Amino acid sequence: MAETVRGSAAGPEAVVARTGPPDVRGTASPWALSIFGAGISALVLVIGGVALVQVVYALEGGRITSGCRAVGLVPFTPQTPTSPAAGIKGAEGVCNIVEAARATPTTLLLWLGVVVGVAALAAGFGTYRRMETRRRRELCITGAVLGIQAVVIGAFLLWFREGRVDRFASQFLNFERLQGYWVGFIGAAKNTLLLAFGGEIGGIVAGLVLAMLAISSRRAVRAPARAYINFFRGTPLLWQLSFFYFGIVLGLNLPLGVFAAAIIVFILNTGAYAAEVFRAGIQSIERGQMEAARSLGMTYLQAMRFAIVPQAVRRVIPPLMNEFVILIKDTALVLVLGLARDQLEIFNYAQEGYSSTFNATFFVVAAIAYLAVTLPLIRLVNIAERRLRGGLLGLNIGQQGL
Amino acid sequence: MNNDSSLVRLENVHKWFGSLHVLKGIDLSLAPQEVLVIIGPSGSGKSTLLRCVNLLELPTQGRVWFDGRNITDVRTDVDEVRTHIGIVFQAYNLFPHKTALQNITVALERVLRLGHNEARDRALQQLTRVGMAQKAEGYPGQLSGGQQQRVAIARALAMQPKVMLFDEVTSALDPELVGEVLEVMLRLAGEGMTMMVVTHEMGFAREVGTRMLFMDDGVIVEEGEPRELFYHPQTDRLRQFLAKVL
Ligand SMILES: Nc1ncnc2c1ncn2[C@@H]1O[C@H](COP(=O)(O)OP(=O)(O)O)[C@@H](O)[C@H]1O
Ligand SMILES: [Mg+2]
């Protein structure tokens, strides 16, 4: 029995044995693969189909249909001596979106996606228990889950486009209203990063010093650091910005710009949070490390510098990066300070754009801008965390001679 | 006051951890080239005693003399004293972010202020002495326990200490790795290094120790020539302890 099993699988198994651990998930089957494929197809039909029709309409471009006119999507005409300004800026683009959403191909694709999704979900959940290998079972379940997602999204889109798509699109998706603002948005993104980077880098330095004070065995050293940390963690950043700028800078007439004041407050605030992160990191290093360093005759500060902090820094990279992501979003709070136009950061800039056009597409673009920065960072945090948990980060950095 | 020839001397040393009385009046002295072995049940205060010698623990009461100086005096430069006292721990405590070589050179360069090349030479020399020169560029995580412990010994030796303290340095090792570490210690003793060795390796204690202490509950219960203690224990406590470990 064992003989025949080994004999029959000798070829592929011999290869697997040499390249890695044995495959315990087993083989796939046409049925399981079909369900998985159906789930994926359903999702692609629903999301990709709708997007594809939108792209095709956008590329054809620029017609105002009677349907659009009927709901008030009229091209903009500036004021003339004889008539007032009329219509909507960017009406063509909005009309495209509305028409594409209501187009027959969209309807077909959505319904097709929903039907395939229901099929995947029914077949997947109906048969996964009977699958003979782990891989088949997983394929069935995954196909069914993707089917559910397709059905939910498809149903939502079908329902949504029965409503006032024109209003939604002209409010949130009128990208032509951003003409003349794109360059400004890039400048705003630069300012956001400048505020966040300035705050983070200064904050890390301040935090390291504060952490060293906060872990002192002498209460007289510890107490002021703790007071500082607790104060800045215990009051809103918004309050800190307002108080520092209006109260201190303006109130005492200090020669300090808004932007510089904002960076200083971000440094002070981040310093408090980074200090806690560093303190936890330093205290997570085994006591024996400090003892070994001190036993070699190092002073406390030398032991910190050469033995403890280099190890702690590795452990605090993920939480510090998290703080950084939070800070990027918190830069939006400088809104209260009233920055000059070229100092505006993403949110502030979007707010400005909105105020002058009353079109919320600016906020949509702002969200995209934030995500463009934060998503890669969040991904980096996750990678760093995984490496650290695997115990690899310290070793890898060490081997690079850092 | 300290006109004897001892290198290390403890005078009525007491240590409290909070309300826990861990050392209860320890008196001992260590002459140059002695190998003093300390045995005793877990929790009896052996590590604390050893750590009082290089002031990793400050005695709550009593005095510690090193090389004719009262090092428990507040005016002592403790960092300077520690450069003359090597200690090796049960858990190795190598710096994981530094190579074997860097583990040794960091103190040579930063504490003894040796130049880069001189520190490197001296470190390699000590690594050779413990048979670890070929792993000089390895990180602790890449070394076996026995190899790490030998690097830790080399790190302590590189400071050219006058006395070496060993705190159960083989207790964390897999049995087959114990020998290579004991062998290094045996060689050190043979070269005339002054040593204080807390250990559960009774064979080593008997063969290498020039004197032995048996501690229990914070006091030195018996003291003498190792074989004498092993073969003619005077107290029930030592008899019971030996019955358990032998
Ligand atoms: N830093 C410390 N704080 C509190 N109690 C301690 C500390 N170090 C050791 N002890 C206690 O002191 C006693 C003696 O410990 P130790 O010297 O390590 O014993 P041994 O090395 O003989 O096993 C034990 O009860 C231990 O729990
Ligand atoms: Mg111990």
How would you sum up this structure, described in words?
The complex is a heterodimer of chains A (402) and B (246). Chain A contains 17 helices and no strands. With 402 residues, chain A is mainly alpha-helical. Chain A has helices at residues 2-8, 10-19, 30-60, 66-70, 91-102, 104-127, 134-160, 165-172, 182-214, 219-234, 237-250, 258-283, 287-295, 300-330, 346-357, 361-389, 392-399. Chain B is built from 9 helices and 10 strands. Chain B has a 6-stranded mixed sheet with strand order 6-7-8-3-9-10, sandwiched between helices. A 4-stranded antiparallel sheet of chain B has the order 2-1-4-5, with helices on one face. Magnesium ion (MG) is lined by residues 46-47, 168 of chain B.
Low-confidence stretches of chain B: none
Total number of β-strand segments of chain A? Answer: 0
Largest interface: A-B, 24 and 30 residues
The rounded distance between the terminal residues' Cα atoms of chain A is 56 Å
Task: Describe the structure using short key phrases.
heterodimer, A: 402 residues, mainly alpha, MetI-like fold, 2 domains, 75% helix, 0% strand, disordered N terminus, disordered C terminus, B: 246 residues, alpha/beta, six-stranded mixed β-sheet, four-stranded antiparallel β-sheet, 9 helices, binds adenosine-5'-diphosphate, binds magnesium ion
